[in-house]
Amino acid sequence: MVTLASTITIVETKANPKKRSLEDGNQPAPKWRIRLGDRAKGIRNPIREIMDTIAGKENPSKTLVSLAQGDPTCYPHLRPSVEMVSAVSHAVNSGQNNGYQPSQGNARCRTAVAAFFNTPGRPTLQAKDVFMTLGCSEALSHCIAALAAPGSNLLLPRPGFPLYQVLCDYHGVEVRYYDLLPDKGWQCNIGDIAKLVDDNTCGLLINNPSNPCGTVFPREHLAEVLNAAAELGLPVIADEVYAGMSFSRPFVSCAEASPRVPILSVCALSKRWLAPGWRIGWITVHDADGAFADAGVPETLLKLCQVSLGPSAPLQAAVPEILTSAPNGCPWHTRVLEALEASAKCCVQRCKAIPGLEVAAEPEGSMYLMVRLQPGVLDINTDDVRFAGKLLEEESVAVLPGQCFCAPGFFRVVFAAPVEVLDEAWDRIEVFCRRHAVK
Ligand SMILES: *Cc1c(COP(=O)(O)O)cnc(C)c1O
């Protein structure tokens, strides 16, 4: 290790000594100037850190049942529609989609996204308001990067999707959490929002339907939250990747719930269209009175899109056919929602019958359920990391501890599995909880 200055170090990479002696006699090993970027080194994925402590520890005598992975395609009953797959296959086979696309995205594709997400009560959404991205993750990254003025902070939901924090750290944005209230159907603590805001607050992130809570906000609640944002002058980043994935309550978008607030809505083919591996997402800019335009937000989003040059051309070319062939309420979409609803119901019913566990709020959409560990009932008490670790070790059932989402004392269940698989998992969870009941 060579120290150049107190803060800079160069790691010496030694070449294979045998090889070197053949090539260049007795010359000293070269000192490669390999250093690491601070921002890259600083990336910390909270799920990985917590899961690495329990990963690979399943009971070898029982097959693993995973209710941990947020991938709707983990089980074969949930698949993209035949029309979606043939649209992609046609786009590849046509030979017309091999070239670079405009950074903001293919124009036909953006026109189709604008038509699909056009919102009553808002100015007509146009192709210029749509930015194509590599999944919803890159869409979120662009939105946060665009608003990340020096010294700024962003309000995030707690519990919430861990990527938000990772992206804020990466873009140098301070994180401030507002709480979602488990005993009020995981609705936002609106009082928190006003308390957290200062002159450097650059936005409010709203995730609806929710990962990890599985809730779908009623229109009135969403309107109240957006009113608070309007009073505080806060633009909103709306993570609506589960748009159209609700079964007990109609999904209402942020843009629909408030005509006044400037909203960057992000979505993707990953969840509602069951194709996370296709890596197609987008931002729709719902401006209000030109607030985003005046601040230069669309130009900045375009610059960010120029970094990766956007998602693959054949996939973008297939988007118009994908969106028109699988509208809300088509038979394929209805079957998907029915399967999710049956799975959610199974989880709620089984969970309610197990001592020590409590459903915080019944899921209404997305594909997640948060389960509360009741204090004093299990010998594990409310230690969610220990609960998830022991459950895996003894019963080979994987769930994510609430700490992955800043929600200690809970665990998250993914209910994208078919009912037969869920029943097997809950049988084992039940046996586990009875075995660990305080005597
Ligand atoms: C899955 C997920 C994403 C990321 O979606 P990709 O399109 O796969 O990048 C973003 N937000 C939430 C809440 C998610 O659950």
UniProtKB/TrEMBL annotation:
Organism domain of life: Eukaryota
Cofactor(s) required, per the database record: pyridoxal 5'-phosphate
Biological process according to GO: L-tyrosine catabolic process
GO MF: L-tyrosine-2-oxoglutarate transaminase activity; pyridoxal phosphate binding
Modified residues (N6-(pyridoxal phosphate)lysine): 271
Keywords, ordered alphabetically: Aminotransferase, Pyridoxal phosphate, Transferase
Keyword Transferase (UniProt): yes
Record-annotated Aminotransferase class I/classII large domain positions: 64-429
InterPro entries: Aminotransferase_I/II_large (IPR004839), PyrdxlP-dep_Trfase (IPR015424), PyrdxlP-dep_Trfase_major (IPR015421), PyrdxlP-dep_Trfase_small (IPR015422), TyrNic_aminoTrfase (IPR005958)
Similarity comment text for this entry: Belongs to the class-I pyridoxal-phosphate-dependent aminotransferase family.
Name recorded for this polypeptide: Aminotransferase class I/classII domain-containing protein
